[in-house]
Every structure is written in structure tokens, then in C-alpha cells.
Sequence to fold (217 residues):
Amino acid sequence: MKNAVLTTMFVLAVGTVAALAQTGNGAPNGAHYNLNIIGKQQCTSDPMTNSNGHVIFVLLNGGDVATNLTGKLASTISKVNKIYLQQAPDANTFDVLDGNACDGNGALFELPNPTNGYSIWARALATPGGSATMTTCATDPTTSEIVCSTLNVLLTRDKGQSKFANVTKELTTITFIDPTTGNPVTVSLFDSALQDYFWNYQNNGLRLAQLRFYPLQ
Fold:
């Protein structure tokens, strides 16, 4: 990324969520939006752009390694197992607009700007043995190149009870090394320094990932 000037440094206040009582599965108590990411050997040909609930389908085995995307032109990458992100018009709306991440367009998920205040929790479910890595990426508008965060979420389905972990920082920011200064820089989701934000979903046999979005209280 050749653009050295970046705007709106972001630190999400998660202290309030940390203080909330947690359930037996590790997630906070309280109202939340639930999103299921389901791995399929073969996905439907339906673009799933109509009302499809809280589900996004991804290939059970597929998707790019995020480090291989950084520096590539956005117009040349595959959109398979990419969940593109659209800013919601308010602080409360979470919605699956396109639930098929297996086709050439990727999926589309609408969520609020994280500065409105919410946390994200994730866990791996279904048959033990699979894993997936989620990484927040975007496009540098000055170069049209992909920038992916050095932070990611590793979801591994082990035997026994699966518990939620707080993945807010990994899924609402991009952290990378500024090539001009050599220093790490963190940019919030939907910051104008970048565009076309998405979650890169590299799946290695994980059949179900569950994400919960909790408003900060």
C-alpha cells in the first residue's frame, strides 16, 4: 500500500462488554444478532439475494490465504468465500443481502459502522475436525490493491463444547505495516482511507461458524 496518509484511528471500547455476565458458552448475556456461516461441498446456484434469514453459504474447502491477496489488484482476485461488507444506514441494522459466497460475486453483509458500538463473538460448531480463518481486507483506492489485516480469527472445531471468543478487533479493523514509516497502522471498518471492505474466509472443512453481534451497553 503506497498511501501513507490514513484517517480515523480506531479503538473500540470493549470494556463494557467485558463486564457483562457471560453464558455457559462464553458469550455475553443479552440481545444479539446471530449469523451462521455454513460450509458446503457444493453450494446452491441461487444467488440468495432475497430474504434468506441469517445464513451465508461458503465452500467447505476453499478461499484464498489472506497473505496471498495483499498487493494484488482488486479486479483480479476471486470473490469465492469473500463476504463483502456494506455499511448500514443506522446503528442497529444487521442483514444478509446476498447469502451465497460460493459464486463469482461473493456474499454481501450489511452491518453498522463499528464506531456506533457493538462487539462480535465467534465460535466453531458442527462436526469436529474442521477449521477456518477469517481476515478483514479492503482495497486501497490510490493503488486499487488489496490490503489484508495482519490480525485474523482462527476458528477450529475441536471435540467437546465450543465456546465463543471476542473477535471484535479482528473483524472491525485492519492492521498493517505502513510501507513509508514501517510502523503498524490500524484502520476501522468503513474508514474512508480504504474501500470495498470484506471478510476473507479461508475454509478448511469447517461446516459451521457462528457469529453474534452484541450492542455495547
About this structure: Residues 2 and 195 are 15 Å apart (CA to CA).
